[in-house]
Amino acid sequence: MTSTLTPVRKRSALTKGQLPKTAPYIVLAVALILGAAILALIGFNAFGWGLVSAILFAAGLVGWSLVVEGSRKAKDKLATCLVVGSFLIALLPLVSVIWTVLVNGLPGLLDPGFLTTSMNGVTGAFDNKTVEQGAPLLGGIYHAIVGTLLITVLATLISVPVGLLTAIYLVEYGQDRALARAITFFVDVMTGIPSIVAGLFAAAAFFAVVGPGTKTGAVAAVALSVLMIPVVVRSSEEMLKIVPNELREAAYALGVRKWRTILKVVLPTAISGIASGITLAIARVIGETAPILVTAGFATTINTNVFSGWMASLPTFIYTQILNPTSPSNPDPSSERAWGAALVLIILVMLLNLGARLVASLFAPKTGR
Amino acid sequence: MTTTSLTKSRGAGHTGDKVFSAATLAAGCLILAVLFGVALFLVVQAIPALVAPADQIQGGEGFFTYIWPLVIGTLIAAVIALVIATPLAIGVALFISHFAPRNLASGLGYVVDLLAAIPSVVYGAWGVAFLAKEISPSYDWLAKNMGWLPIFQGPASATGKTILTAGIVLAVMVLPIITSLTREIFLQTPKLHEEAALALGATRWEMIRMTVLPFGRPGIISAVMLGLGRALGETMAVALVLSSGALTASLIQTGNQTIAAEIALNFPEASGLKVNTLIAAGLVLFVITLGVNVIARGIISRHKEFSGAN
Hints:
The complex is a heterodimer of chains A (about 375) and B (about 300). By secondary structure, chain A is mainly alpha-helical. Chain A is built from 13 helices and no strands. Chain A has helices spanning about 25-40, 45-70, 70-110, 125-135, 140-175, 180-190, 195-210, 215-240, 245-255, 260-285, 290-295, 315-325, 330-360. In chain A, helix 2 runs antiparallel to helix 3, helix 6 (about 180-190) packs across helix 8 and helix 9 runs antiparallel to helix 10 (about 260-285). By secondary structure, chain B is mainly alpha-helical. Chain B has one domain: MetI-like fold. The radius of gyration of chain B is 25 Å and the shape is flat. Chain B starts with a helix and ends in an 8-residue tail after the last helix. The chains are: A mainly alpha (about 375), B mainly alpha (about 300). Chains A and B meet through helix 3, helix 5, helix 6, helix 7 and helix 8 of A and helix 1, helix 2, helix 3, helix 4 and helix 5 of B. Chain A: Belongs to the binding-protein-dependent transport system permease family. CysTW subfamily. Chain A: It comes from Arthrobacter humicola. Chain A: This is Phosphate transport system permease protein PstA.
């Protein structure tokens, strides 16, 4: 009789064995060693090693889990491997782009006079001399920096008032009217306009109004505004929406007019978010190439007048130096200049992005808590 | 005295109110006018190319023969980009929303957003200087081993400047767009649904398949469509990376061209009817991307109360 009381160990799906906590590390070590061994047979390179090891790691961990833990846990492990793997793959181009720009861009940036001279008078003959006789690299990006700054500032001056006022209309006056809904919808549609179409629009408009072949910095600024306005509207609208209604009602209760309430109460409360949104919008358009390419042409000289004459900018400078080197027989000096300009452009964009975060935290309303 | 000053101040305030609300209304209408103007000016400048005799258009066989291969090339490049970017983006979004440690997640999201901050011309330069060179050996391998597929037909381009390379660069560029939208949607999955699934004994992956993915499906679709809109209109990556040519089925030979790159490469030196032809091409691109975006936004607004992509 007593024998029936002996506990019988039943295996159920819920209490199946588990992998030890160190399992991923063990599999990783084995995968790395095996991967190195396989790569040693077919010729070693770091990228291939990482790839083969990752595949071995995933296969090993999932296989082990399948044997010990069953198919559900194994599927979970597989999904985790794939998700983490996709994140690592997404990081590859970011690291690769920044590395490529740094390595190729530093020599160009460190050339004396690179930031303070233009390409005026720099011809293929000078570049040939640089390559063949080791003469110093001539030419720089001063004209492109000037052009980029002028065009971007003008585009900002156009976009910010229009975008901000529209956002105020949508939040404070629109009240879900048909017009407000139409504006919201078309602003969303506008964010999807291809940048080159925005450039063509500005070009076509100025060709029709001013005269065929009108290409100036102002045309480029209009093209950039078409791209920038929807971004400003969206971000400002979001920021105005989160201003608490109590603040508005308190102002109204004190007898303050609506427009003064908006100017003195609503805007100051939301200003940090609005400013950072505008900075991000500037960062987005400062790197746009296509619209400037079709609207401002490319100049090699310094032009500080946005209303007449072709104008250079950093993105178009990079584009033309790569595609049409100054000296077709010796493209190396041109590509050095292009990468130097690319480095400057990336630094500008990153500074703007950092600045947006800084602005957001510096001007954030004091909550007092 | 006090009454008059009160009346006066009311009058002044009233004017201020009127001026201010009129200004905001004008700004809103200006945006509508601009969008309308985009369409109008493109149409006006495109008409000469559409009505011109066939032999005066580049290629000599009329506008539609000219634009047709470009439309197909644009679609090929965009489809390659989406095929690569969509699964990756969903994976990255899931990683940030459900797999990464909570305190790291926002920082990792910022890293992915940095991908979107890099200017397109830098991607183009990277594609032609780094990616095309590194990837061309694998095109040789594809041509040798999978050449029986029409899309991998050899001989592979020696420079690697093919539509497949351009598509990969485009994939990198649309990845952050799809990621940030889908991430927002995944984060909005009701916590109770997730916890209910976990409480029933689901593994993390089963929880995601049962709650997060069904909840986010309309959001994923619209995010992919917004990515498609971006990929269709992206210019620089293709203009720099692709060495263009006639329409070919093989993805690893030189050839094919997209509308945006065709405009960027030819517009600066164009004159006369050529300008109108390129603007007409831009109009076609505008109509295609407009359609894609309207559909995507329509899906988002229909599911507005559920998704965070608005």
